[in-house]
Specification:
The complex is a heterodimer of chains A (about 210) and B (about 170). Chain A is an alpha/beta fold and about 210 residues long. Chain A has 8 helices and 6 strands; from the N terminus they run H-E-E-E-E-H-H-H-H-H-E-H-E-H. The longest helix of chain A is centred in the N-terminal third of the chain and has 17 residues. The radius of gyration of chain A is 25 Å and the shape is elongated. The mean pLDDT of chain A is about 85. Chain B has a 5-stranded mixed sheet with strand order 4-3-2-5-6, sandwiched between helices. In chain B, helix 2 crosses helix 3. Classes of the chains: A alpha/beta (about 210), B alpha/beta (about 170).
Chain lengths: ~210, ~170
């Protein structure tokens, strides 16, 4: 019986097309990307139908985690963070910061330590700072440091817009304390950060 | 297209000039690299910009009395329970009723009330059990229904009495 010869075929494929696709996608992602901010606070925001977009700059953000810890953050437009730290040490003369601590403050994200621990927190190595379990900024009526942060933050950048980024599960009394603090400082207009949810009125229209 | 023009070969088979070489390159490593970078960018990018909901709190000092017949009170107890009534806590015009966050719950009531009561005012009263999500949900309902005037206020002692009377506290 004659053997049936199966012709050998090369297993090499032309990769050009695949290469094209890969680099097309790469270009797309490189142009559209906006890096996730280096945020140590994990907050799962609730959803709403509101579609107002948040600008990238001029934001003073107050984050509230599930367990009710409060964090403060401000973006560094026009060196607002440097100014803020200078104002803090002006107000609390016992807090004097070195150039290194100042740099750490500018580069770090949300702040969630009481003022008396701030120096120690900024003195940590970057890696340790990320691992550090921040206790949150005190917002009690007897010791309301958030109020100081808000006031000094607004002085460092007068155009700032105040946002609250609360976790779905954080208890209302904590949020209320934050809102009361804002109202004590005459801030009656602020934004709540939410995720997008479908608007039932619009769904009906389809 | 991509191939270079080859030099002519003479009759004896001797090559003149360069050797004939294929211009095809193995692109596999380049594809690998491409996809590696694509993966990196896909994982580090964030597409959705966060949305915001603007809220205006009433000024502290300016207390405006709300007409009792036009004020709808919503008490948020916890994740699944809400109560609503109309009028004053000590003599409600519509009695205290338990409802929920679904489309057939509070939204239906608000839509009905919004169309019958002119200049309706909704007072949102969260209890200590309420979560932040519940408040955002109820503010969202205000936007969906189109309630123009609403406020977040503290729970009154009279409201607690009303809840106690209905065995809900």
């Amino acid at each position: 019986m004659p053997k049936v010869k199966i012709p050998r075929k090369s297993t090499l494929i032309d990769m050009t097309a695949m290469c094209d696709v890969a680099f097309l996608l790469l270009t797309f992602f490189m142009l559209t990307t906006q890096f996730k901010s280096d945020e140590s606070v994990i907050v799962d925001t609730p959803s709403s139908i509101s579609e107002i977009k948040l600008p990238d700059t001029d934001i003073l953000n107050i984050s509230i985690t599930t367990d009710g810890k409060v964090f403060f953050n401000i973006d560094n437009k026009n060196f607002a963070r440097e100014k803020l730290l200078a104002k803090i040490s002006e107000k609390y003369p016992e807090l004097q910061f070195t150039a290194e601590e100042e740099r750490a403050f500018v580069l770090t994200g949300s702040i969630g330590v009481p003022l008396n621990e701030l120096k120690g927190y900024l003195g940590l190595e970057e890696v340790d700072r990320k691992m550090y379990n921040q206790p949150g900024i005190p917002v009690d009526s007897t010791n309301n440091e958030l109020s100081t942060w808000i006031m000094q933050g607004r002085l460092s950048n007068p155009n700032v817009r105040i946002t609250i980024k609360g976790d779905q599960g954080c208890p209302w009394p904590t949020v209320k304390k934050v809102i009361n603090t804002l109202q004590d400082r005459n801030v009656n207009k602020f934004n709540l950060i939410t995720d997008l949810e479908a608007d039932p009125n619009k769904l009906k229209g389809i | 297209m991509a191939e270079l023009e080859q030099k002519q070969v003479d009759k004896e088979g001797q090559k003149k000039g360069r050797k004939k070489r294929s211009t095809r390159i193995d692109l596999t490593p380049m594809v690998d690299l491409g996809f590696l970078l694509v993966t990196f960018f896909m994982l580090t990018t964030n597409f959705s910009k966060p949305q915001t909901m603007e809220i205006n709190m009433p000024f502290r000092d300016g207390k405006q009395p709300t007409p009792e017949s036009k004020s709808v009170h919503i008490i948020i107890d916890d994740e699944s329970k809400l109560y609503w009534y109309r009028g004053f806590a000590n003599k409600p015009l519509d009695p205290l009723v338990e409802t929920n966050f679904s489309a057939n719950g509070i939204r239906k009531i608000l839509l009905e009330k919004n169309s019958t009561i002119e200049n309706m005012v909704v007072l949102i009263k969260p209890t200590g059990n309420a979560r932040y999500k519940n408040i955002v949900d109820i503010l969202d309902e205000m936007n969906i229904v189109g309630v123009k005037r609403y406020a977040i206020v503290d729970l009154d002692p009279a409201d607690i009495d009303l809840l106690k009377k209905n065995n809900k506290w």
